[in-house]
Structures are given as C-alpha cells and as structure tokens.
Amino acid sequence: MDDAEKQKNYELAERLLAEQNFAAAVIAGAVATAIAVFAYVIVVARWPIAYGFAAAGLGIIIGLAMQFVGRGIAPRFSVVATAYTLIGCVVGNLIVGAGMSGVHFVYWFVAVFAAVFFARRALSRADRLALGLLALRD
C-alpha cells in the first residue's frame, strides 16, 4: 500500500469518526425507549403470548433509532442501547404487571442482543480497513 492510498484510508477513517453523534444518539435512544415501551405495553397487554416478540421489537427499535441518528461505530453506542433496552423491559414489565421470571430474562437477552446489533452502523470492509489503519498509525 503506497502513501497516497494510506492517506485516502486515513481520511476515510477520520470522516467516519467525525460523522458520529453520540449526544443525538442518546436523545434518540431515550425517545425510542419511550415509544417502544408504549408499544411493548400495548402488545403484551393485548397478546400475553407475544412477550418475546415485544421484547425483541423493543431492542430493535432502540438500536435502529440510535444507529440512524447517531451513525455510531464506537462501543459506547452499544452500551447505551443496552441500558435503554434493559430499562425499557423493566418498565414495560412493571406497567403490565408481568413480573420477573426466568423466561423474561431470556427474552431480555434477545432484546439486548438486538439493540447491541442495531445500535452501531454496519461498516464495509474498506471502512473497517481504514479504521484499522488509523488505529495502527496512532
């Protein structure tokens, strides 16, 4: 890899890092949590057997909102999405009166996995290479 190509990769990595907006992602995640909890309560109250789908949907909504608004690639986006998802699941259970059984924790795990997966934007191979080269440079 010559110097011009390395410089192009450094610029790409710096652009990707500059596009991140953590504050906006936190706000979007909070709003998405409120909306997702509302939907969660409606679905679980109406169809109690749909608890797992509602929990996974909660995580997906939170993760996608944070990804779309925050355009994050740092792990802190996933950490915040995890916190919001757990808060959403607990609040939803308290409102519905579903309690806290072992099955609920399994669904929460699925919800957290979905939130973590969707909270950070997907990177192409070239994007990952550029970020790796930038990390090696520093």
Number of helices: 6
Strand count, sense and barrel status of the largest sheet are:
none
Tally of discrete structural domains: 1
Quickly give the structural class. Answer: mainly alpha
**How many β-strands, per DSSP?**
0
Coarse shape: elongated
What is the residue-mean pLDDT, rounded to a whole number?
91
- DSSP strand (E) fraction? under 5%
Spatial extent as radius of gyration:
18 Å
- Helix % is over 70%
Encode the helix/strand succession as letters.
HHHHHH
Low-confidence stretches: none
- Distance N to C terminus: 18 Å
Which helices and strands appear, and what pairs or packs with what?
Layout: H1 3-19, H2 22-46, H3 51-70, H4 75-96, H5 102-119, H6 125-137
Helix pairs in contact: 1-6, 2-3, 2-4, 3-4, 3-5, 4-5
Description:
The relative contact order is 0.19. The protein is built from six helices and no strands. It has one domain. Helices cover 83% and strands 0% of the residues. The protein is elongated. Helix 3 (51-70) packs antiparallel against helix 4 and helix 4 packs antiparallel against helix 5. It is an all-alpha fold.
Keywords:
138 residues, mainly alpha
Short description:
This protein has 138 residues and is mostly helical.
